[in-house]
Amino acid sequence: MKAALRHLLVGLANRYETIGFIQGDPSWFMHQVADPLDQETMAFLAMCLSYGSRKQFMPKIDQLMRLAGGRPYRWIAGGGYADGIVSSDQCYYRLYTYADIHRLLTALHDLFCEYGSLGAFASEAVRQDMSGVSDVESVLVALATFFRRHGIKGLVPSPYTSACKRPCMFLRWMVRDGSPVDLGLWSSFIDKANLYVPLDIHVLQTANQLEIARVKSAGWKAVVDLTRQLGEAFPSDPARGDFALYGYDIDR
What we know:
Layout: H1 3-16, H2 36-49, H3 54-67, H4 72-77, H5 81-84, E1 91-93, E2 96-97, H6 98-115, H7 118-128, H8 135-149, H9 165-175, H10 201-209, H11 220-230, H12 241-251
Antiparallel strand pairs: 1-2
């Protein structure tokens, strides 16, 4: 990476990774609760629904937070969600019905019963994985596998077969420490140097304009390539490049 591009990216990240970033961003929801269990739970719910138009999905995430009374962990672990989200064929958001969301919350309830929390689940996934992949990949695969086994499709996408944007974003929130945006709750057992940049078509287009990306389709290969390229500007924290790409688009 040329020095001028590296300097531009670092400058953009410095300018845009601020508390103001969360306004209008799905990360806003995890900052509205104080308990770490509620924070990671709210972040996970926000991750599941953060696709499409923000004007459409932000109210849906807000609805879940309000139904939970600002205590999403207790609401799900204690079974209160069953009264708030009644299983039906009525549309909740885009392709997903109330039955789909009820199934998601039930799976999350089961995860809490078995592991205690999302953080404990992720830590165990890292500890038990003997495949030789990174800690981040271990958690991405474990999350997708767990929810797929509970009948959840699409809401928790898998790596390798997709860009896996939203789970990569969720792990950025959970792992990166020292940030006014990201929480860093899992920084003790996951290395932020292994995080992937959340990638969609829009991010890929911005990366192409900067001549960073070398792959034209937003699949896992592009995620790996873009993350490696941004690692040249942010050697121990490649996901910080997400703020730089966001800032470049805003500046334009």
